[in-house]
Amino acid sequence: MTLEACTDLVRTQDPDRFGTVLVARPQDRPALLTFYALNLEIARAPFQSNEPILAEMRLQWWIDRLAEMGTGKAPPLHDVLTPLWEAWGEDAGRIAPLAEARRHDCARQPFAAPEEVVAYVNDTAGRLMGLAAERLGVPAEAQGVVADQALGAGLTAWLRALPRLQPLRLGLDRQHPEDAVALARIARDALHRAARSRRLLPKQAAAALYPGPRVLQFLAAVLQGNINCFVETLEVTPFQRRASLARLALTGRWWR
Length: 256
Fold this sequence. Notes:
Elements: H1 3-13, H2 15-23, H3 29-44, H4 52-70, H5 81-88, H6 96-100, H7 103-107, H8 114-135, H9 143-165, H10 177-196, H11 206-209, H12 215-223, H13 238-251
Helix pairs in contact: 1-2, 1-3, 2-3, 2-13, 3-5, 8-9, 9-10, 10-12
């Protein structure tokens, strides 16, 4: 079991994060690749069965393996867990709460209010970016900046995915435009706070902090009422995606 399987998975299923890995220092890439590959696996585990109980059983398998790794027990040979163990060791146990947060997806219960979405994003996208940034050298006292960046990026990604989440009963239980606008405003404000405090973070953390392409443009469209997030999104062309990642690689500028 090698890093190649993780590399292929992230490259094909999460091209934006794969692009950020290429920006990272060579010594940091194995940790990021294995972490992002694991995130893909636990994110799709709840959707491998339409039965909530079976979906949760699949997710529980990942939670149990991560918990065991946290105690120093090596995982069984596996395309993702084996290279994750090699890169993270016992620290892999700290990833278990990220998988725990996905229990909500197994239940197929829509969110009743924007505040519930914020909590979910903090537990998923927030934990993901927080652990990646810590691995890249962000000190504990600057994790608040990372949390703001993760909240802004995570809410934006969630709003972009809303047309796909609604039919799965993973969106909002009421399609009120004002709820989407409230979430877009929270995301925009969080990104602005992170940008103002960017000097607290080391340069090498840029690879973990990339929010995705055309984030502020999308949020502005939502806030101006130009997009109904429940049924449409702002398309990103391949050129715009490549240009955004090239900007990150050339300048290290993760903020917008």
